[in-house]
Each structure stands twice: as structure tokens, then as C-alpha cells.
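Our collaborator T.R. sent over the components below with a one-line note: 'Predict the complex.' Nothing else. No constraints on interfaces, no templates requested, no preferences about which chain binds where. So this is a plain run: every listed entity goes in together, and whatever single assembly comes back becomes the starting point for the next discussion.
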Amino acid sequence: MSFNMAMHTRKTISCAAILIMVPLLLLVSCTTDKKDEVIIYTAVDREYAEPIFNEFQENTGIIVKAVYDVEASKTTGLVMRLVAEKDRPRADVFWNNEFSQTILLKENGVLTPYSSPNSGDIPAPFKDPEGYWTCFGGRARIFIVNTDLVKKEDFPHSIYDLLDPKWPADRIGMANPLFGTTKTHAAALYGLWGADEAKKFFGDIRERGVRIIDGNALVRDLVARGELMMGLTDTDDACVAVDRGDPVAVVFPDQETFGTLIVPNSVALIRGGPNPQNGEKLIDYLVMAETEDALVGAGFFQTTVRESGVGPDCIPMTDIKGMDIPYAEIVENLSPAKDDLGEIFLQ
Amino acid sequence: MPLHSQADARFSSGRLLAFIGLVSFFLFVFGPLIFLIPPVVREIAGSGPDTLLLMLPTGRRLSLLLSSLLYAAGVSVCGTVIGVLCASFFFSRDRRWTRILPILILAVLPIPPTIHALAWMAAWADVSGWLTSHGFFFPPLRGWFGAVWVQTMSLLPFSFGICLIALRNLDPALIEAARMMGDDLKTLLKVALPLIFPALISAAVFLFVMTLSDYAVPSLFSVSVYPLEVFSDFSAENSPARAFLLSVPLLVITAAVVLSAQSTMRDVAAETPKGALGRSLRLELGPCTNGLTVLCLVLAVLCFVVPTFALWLDVGSVSDLAAAVGSAKSAIYTTLFCALFSTLIALVPSFWWADGMRGIGRRGRILWVMALVVPAIPGSLFGIGLVYMGNMPVFAPLNDTLVFPILVSVARFSPWAAILLFCFGQRIDPILFDAAAVHETGPVVGFLKVRLPLMLPGILAAGILVGVLAAGELSGTLLVLPPGVDTMIPRIFTYLHYGATPQTAALSLVMSWGFLVLFSVVLWLLSKNKA
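Returned assembly:
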């Protein structure tokens, strides 16, 4: 190679390297210093989680760095991330707004056992026997009814009302049972009734033409606007409409029979996380009774797992009958329910 | 030194620069997917050969795939037809307001389709309620009609923009010659539109690919599409390998569409004259065509007015807007930072990839297909690939930086930049490059003094496209965003949980207006450059 050619080649490589490396170096230099911190992945809405993290930060001096999930990913985004990061975990704690994905994370070997001393007064059904996760607070599956369109004496009282011809099928709705808490509710019904009856129930819902809507929040909004007479949703979504002063009422289904599904939050320690001790401290803070009560007061929880828990302002939730089915059994039914419901609702 | 040695040196350095550009593009775009291969292969090997059958859609999944194809084709055809008719309206009128209105229509590009859908649902319900109360029938915005309508409206600015740019870049000599030979309508239908055929195909392919992989809008209208099947499976099984295998039919269809379209585009592009009109004309199109173009203009204006007006109503007041923006200040900065760096990093390799796409024969075709298949790959797979990359000790220091969120956008949107640059490059006379090559002292000087100025409008357009798409990226960013950092789109989607709140509306408006300002500045710079 001649001298000139070599010089041109060197120049070219240098320019290309500068073009690519300078932005990368600039970005790497943006890395923050490692301090006394804890990293949490949470599917809980920022509006509710952030004040709790700020308070923890003030009390302990430990900086909380959070990654939030979004409704659009139906709470699977962070679970996907935690599974992919299993060999080099970046998070210390996972705070989920339900329990099924947390149990799946345990099965995937992402979690490590930790029984918080502050969870002593939480009843046994809300804790993993091996200490991998702890449930607290939560919400319930309910009917939201438009009070301008439906008289009180006509309110629904069971999820079987979704099949009752007195309700026009195109004026009632529920979220897609393949996702979110409606999916968990479906898996619970599979566990409670058996696969055949549950499959027939959802098949009949589809056959009737009940409106399947993209998410519980939209069910709430369609009922509040009067496009639907009633719909199946969660208490936290319904509370938004109640607080807004929309013409809606909340009905807990199946209180005379098998009860409604209570969906508590769950929290777990990540195996091999970068700050395990701070992670334990954060879990201690999250599961303590005061935090649970604060989240009820903020309107995020509508129920507590403790006997002494306070009630929410928006919906009276005293003496609500929940379904009597272990959470692990609900999770076992997720996959068979998904196969059936995919056949029914995705066609 | 002999002259031929200098020429050899320039040639060799130029090829080296091009090679580095191509390799960089390949690594940036396909690198994340390469990291995904070992875990996916391990998972497939662990679950048995039956898992591979997921790649073959049968029974219910086959009918879902057909529904998705029809849905994507419907949006593609509707969006392209409305887009080109609307562009024809502006092409045939040269007044002050016809120069400003297109910018407003293009300003809604960064608003996510979900926001479009919510705005349209609310507006439709209001209009429908008013009309039915006065005894008129108004079809409900539901089912497939609703999904196709909203998706078309949210993507219309893309097809409109592509067609308008193509029309305004036509060779003035050809248009003037055609006007002398026949009437204006014939000039439009028989000369102008056939000349922009590659742009029409590009717009149609873009809309098709963007729609085929989307499930957000269909699920809002309770219709089932194939990507929803992929997502529901992942939601229950948490298996990236299964998600990848289920996505294979979408990749194959996209590759097939792109392969058939690219030969048409390349063949027609080869006959495209060089030069640019750079402005609109005053054409007399007759009452029927005028009526049709005006109708499409109304639709295009509605795709700007409905979301903007609905968002403004939700915001409430200027003080609410300021409060919402104030609370999301860090997210706004991070979004701008990520969008800016994604654009800077994506443009350089895309430039060389576009150059390679212009190559004759199999190599050029392969580069084409590789660029156009990428948009059909689910964004979350790029995110997971980068997570696996971050698991390696050598890349671990990047985990707490914004490198990975930027790389997600670079990987997903560089191909769009390359395609745009390719289309723009087709319009430049290659003799100019050859002439400059004789006199330039090196490839870098040649790039800076000749290629860069000639390609500047195309580079700016590609930069805007990458910046806009990067600012709206969600599925991959969510997987690699460092703890304690957030961008605008996750915030908007978090707020969506509570319906169209003032915060959602305010942040969407900020994105839209920010783009409007950016776009106006770029147009101003270009006009100054021309002057």
C-alpha cells in the first residue's frame, strides 16, 4: 500500500470512529454515580407509587430508582425484562399490582425468598409458604353500573348476569379476558368451576355478543358515558369514575355464592439484585400496615389484607366476600384458560 | 506521485468508508437481534421440535392472519388514495395558505395512534349523539370500520407527506411540456402521478407494514388481529422464543410484500427524471377531481383538527398545560435527548446503507429487503436483545445509561431513514457525484463538500422521521430504560389508565407542537439554503 493510500485509509477510519464513538462516549459519560440506592420495577401507577418512594427516601436516605410499567403492555413489559435480566439482575425489588405474574417469576427462578418482619400480621393465604412473595392491599372485581340507565332494583348481582337476556348484549361489556385482571379472573373461574363450565361460560358470553373492550379503564369510561349500561371492571378503575362524580354505582358480584375475585398487590425480592439489603428495607416499608393504609387513603387500594385495615372513601368495602381459591391454583389455570379463551375470543 | 495512485487511494478509502458504514448499519440494526439468537435457540431446543410448528399458522391462527392482512391492506389502500388526492389538492394550488396547511397536517405525526383513537371515539360519539337526537342516522365507530378509520387517520400524514414531497420534486421541464400538450387534469393523471409511482408504492408499503404489526387500535375496537395472538401468548407464557416464532409469519409476509414492491419501485425509479419543481402549480382539474381532492383535504384536516381539538379540550387551560409540562420536565428533556442522539447515530450508517441499496444486482436487492423487513419485527424483541447484550460483562457499564434506549430507536428506525435517503438519492443526478469524484482530494472531503450538500434536504427529512419515531418509541424502550429515568411516551400511556386526562392531553400536545416548531425551523433553513 502506498503512503498516500495508507494516509487516506487512516483518515477514513478515524473519521468513521469519531462519528460513531463520540456520541456513545457522551452518553456513557451521562452515567450517574452509584450511591446508596435501591432499584425497583413496578407495575403500580406512578401517581401512587412515587409518593411512597419519596417518603421511604426521606426516612432512610436510600435513593429509590424506579422503572414503571404501562397499561399498554398489560403488565407484561417488566416481567419480560426481569426474565431477560435473570443472569445479570438490575432490579432489587418487584412490586406488582397483581399476583399471577409474580408467581410466574418465582417459577422462572427470578426471585429469592425474603419474609419481611413487617408482614407478620398478614394472613397466611397472602404469603408464599416459601417466602418468595408477599401480598398486600389490592382491588376487587366489580360491576360498574350507569345509574342514569339502570334502576337500583335492576342492578346485576352475579357475573352470570352477563348471560341474562334482560341485558342487551351490546350495552354490557368487559375487558378482554386474555389480558390483565380479567385474565386472572377467568383463570380463577377455571379453578373454581372446572375447565368445562368456565369454557362454556365464556363461550356463551362471546356467542351473545357481549362487548369485549380494550381494558378495564375503557369499560369504566363507556359505562360512565352511557354507551354501556354496565360492565365488569376493577375497583381502582371504578373509583376514578366515582371520584369524578360520574353517574355510576359499584356492585360486588356473587356475594351470596362464591364471592368476587380480590386481586392484591405483591412484592418480591429479586435474586442476585445489586442492592439486596436496601431491597429488603424497601419491602419492609411497603408491606407495613401504615403503607397499606396510606395507599388506601390515596385511593389506590380499595381493600387491605389485614383485619385492622382502613376502608376506602370511594367504595365501601367492608364485609366483601372474596373467592376462596389459592393464588397458586389460579396461576396453574392461566395457561389452559389462555388456550380456550384464545379460541373463543381471538377469531 | 502518479495520478493513478492517488485515484486508487481515493477509491480504496471511499470503499472502506462505505464498508464501515454498511457494517455499522448492520450492527446497529441487527446486533440486538443477534444477541437474541442463543437464548431463543436454547429455549426452542429445551421445549422440543413441536414448538417450531408455531411458525405455521393453521386453523384459527390462519384466519386471524388473513384478517390482519385484509386490515393492513385496507388501511394501506385507503391511506395512500386519500394521501395522494390530498397531496394533489396542494400540488394544484399555489397560494400562501396551501404552503402552511400541510405543515399543520404533518404536525400530528408524533401523536400515538391510541390518542388518535380516543379522540376520534369521543368526537364520533358527540357527533353521532347530536345527529341521532335530530333524527339522522350516523354509523357507529365500531368493529373493523372503526379500526380501519382510526388507523388510516393516524397514518394519513405519512402517506400525504410522502406524496406531497414527491409531487413537489417533479421535473419542471416534464410538467411544463405536458401542460403544453394537454389539459391540466391529464397532466396530473397521466404525467405527474405516474412519475411519483415509486412514492405511492413507498407510502402504501409503509402504511401496510406499520398496520400489520399493530394491535393497539384493533383491540380498542374489539376486533382480533394476529399480533394480538402473539401478545396474548407472551402474556401467558412469558417466552420470547414463542413470541419470535409466532411473529415469523408476519416477517415472511412483510418480506414478500417488500420484495414484490421493491422491484416495481426500483424499476420505476430508474426512469425517474432528475431535478425538482420545488413548489406547487396552479392547475385546473375540473369539478369532479376538484371535489374529490377537496373531500380528501377535509379528511386530512380532520386528522389534525380532531386530536388537537380533543386534546385541547381535555387540557382545560393554559395554566393546566403549564403545570402538566412542568411536572414532566425531566421526561421531556430525556425524550429530546434520546430522539436527538438516535437521529445523529442513525443517519450516518443509514446514508451508506441507502447508497448500497442503489447498487445494481443482487447486493442492492438484499440490502433493500433487509431494510424493509425490520419494521415488521416486534419492537420488544429489539429491547430483549439489548437486555441480553447488557447481560454481558463488557457491555454492563452501559446498563445505567441512555445508550440502550437510544440503540432501540436506532435499530428500529434506521431502516426508515435509509429508505427515505434512497428515495431522495434517486432524484440526484449521478453525474454530479462522478464529476466531484474526479476533483475531490479524499472521500471525507467529497462527502462533506459534495454529497452532504446535495443530500441535505433528504438527510433533514430522514432526521425528522427518525426523531419523531424515536420520541414515540415504547415497546423496546420500556425494556431498557434505566431505573429512575423516564420518557414522554411511557408517561402518556400511564396516564391513559385514567382515560384522556389533562396530563395525557398536555404531553401529547407538547409532542405535536414541538414537532411543528422543529418542522417549521427545518423548512425555514431549507428555504434559506435555497435562497
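Summary for T.R.: Chain A touches chain B through 79 residues (CB under 8 Å).
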